[in-house]
Design a protein that fits this description.
The protein is of the alpha/beta class. It is built from 14 helices and 12 strands. The structure holds pyridoxal-5'-phosphate. The site of pyridoxal-5'-phosphate (PLP) has 16 residues, from α3 and α4.
């Protein structure tokens, strides 16, 4: 089955009860048993729920994986992955990454004795220099947030395999439409499904997808034991969103290309970070592992002024100033004061998150209206 069919049919079956074409919302916490243990595969909805099962099969299908797991949020999905580890274990992580991931790693898990190394990963050899006997996990986010660097997944997977270390990829920005990390050798794919997979800014959800039955068993044990599962209503909304993922992504990419070029030629703009530019330092990696370049763009202004950038995002009208990304509507953000405020200034500036940096999630509106909005905000 091709990707554009998988979004609609992947892992889905007609509901056996009445032939419903859409998976029903099984709004139930429990299931009748004829005798103790005598049930139809479902006992309690923290463990399993039929609407969630339908979604988990869709997640697996999209990423070309065998097993999918749905969590209450992207953070809950990441949390489950880190719970595979024990005190003394070490993790090598992308240094330019989602602020909440950084916060979970440093503020929650460091105190349980897990050590995190945050490093630039554009050069795979650099990753290898941090591997030691305690290294258990490499955590990759690509494209990175908000600097849109690209990390070579296949090369990183080779290093992970050589040292028997797990490789997890946060595929939120790219989506499986653009890149499929399991095909490139990753062990775990993670999504904040809140973003492009759901696509309508109406659900908070996380996903993990794996191929290994052993890993799937450990993660579903953690999913049930810790209990951060997604409810049936949210699973239904997510399934509905996924059906148009390919159409939305195609338009996100088309619109972002026009916006990136517009910004590049604007006299007030200093840098535009978008992996589709030929002079982007990781353009070739992006071209080789991604189908297109995505809907996310970051840029800085020439005066590099905190207040002026705040005013620009305030003036934008269609690009609503808000946390999050990946919905059909365009959003703008000021990472230094919003998504990345939990990362110390010296740390964030090392990776390029300067005071004037603005991040855009380019939506699927008419491109002329988006350019007009940017024009008035930058005037
Ligand atoms: C939003 C986001 C997360 C966290 O997901 P939630 O659904 O908000 O918990 C993790 N990684 C990336 C790249 C994100 O954009």
């Amino acid at each position: 089955m091709k990707f554009n069919t998988k979004t609609i049919h992947g892992g889905q079956e007609i509901d056996p009860a009445y032939g419903a074409v859409m998976p029903p919302i099984y709004q139930t916490s429990t299931y009748a048993q004829s005798t103790p243990g005598g049930h139809k595969g479902y006992e309690y909805s923290r463990t399993h729920n039929p609407t969630r099962t339908a979604l988990e099969k869709s997640f697996a299908s999209l990423e070309n994986g065998k097993y999918g797991l749905a969590f209450a949020s992207g953070m809950a999905a990441i949390d489950a992955v880190i719970k595979l580890l024990k005190p003394g274990d070490e993790v090598i992580s992308t240094n330019d990454l989602y602020g909440g991931t950084y916060r979970l790693f440093t503020k929650v898990y460091e105190k349980f004795g897990i050590k995190f190394h945050f490093i630039g990963m554009e050069n795979a050899k650099h990753i290898e220099s941090y591997v030691n006997a305690n290294t258990k996990l490499i955590w990759v986010e690509t494209p990175t947030n908000p600097m849109l660097n690209i990390i070579d997944i296949a090369s990183t997977a080779n290093i992970a395999k050589k040292h028997d270390v797990l490789l997890a990829v946060d595929n939120t920005f790219a989506t499986p439409y653009l890149q499929q990390p399991l095909n490139l050798g990753a062990d775990i794919v993670m999504h904040s499904a809140t973003k492009y997979l759901g696509g309508h800014s109406d659900v908070v959800m996380g996903a993990l997808i794996v191929n290994s039955p052993k890993l799937a068993e450990k993660l579903s044990f953690l999913q049930n034991a810790s209990g951060a599962v997604s409810g049936p209503q949210d699973c239904f909304l997510m399934l509905r969103g996924i059906k148009t993922l390919h159409l939305r992504m195609q338009r996100h990419c088309e619109n972002a290309k026009v916006v990136a070029e517009y910004l590049k030629n604007h006299p007030k703009i200093e840098n535009v970070y978008w992996p589709g530019f030929e002079d982007h330092p990781n353009h070739n990696t992006a071209k080789s592992q991604m189908r297109d370049f995505g809907g996310m763009i970051s840029f800085t202004t020439k005066d590099n002024n905190y207040d002026e950038s705040v005013r620009i995002v305030e003036r934008l009208k269609l690009f609503v100033l808000a946390e999050s990304l990946g919905g059909v509507e365009s959003l703008s953000g000021h990472p230094a004061s919003m998504t990345h405020a939990s990362i110390p200034k010296e740390e964030r500036e090392k990776t390029g998150v300067v005071d004037s940096l603005i991040r855009l999630s380019v939506g699927i509106e008419d491109i002329d209206d988006l350019i007009e909005d940017l024009n008035q905000a930058l005037a």
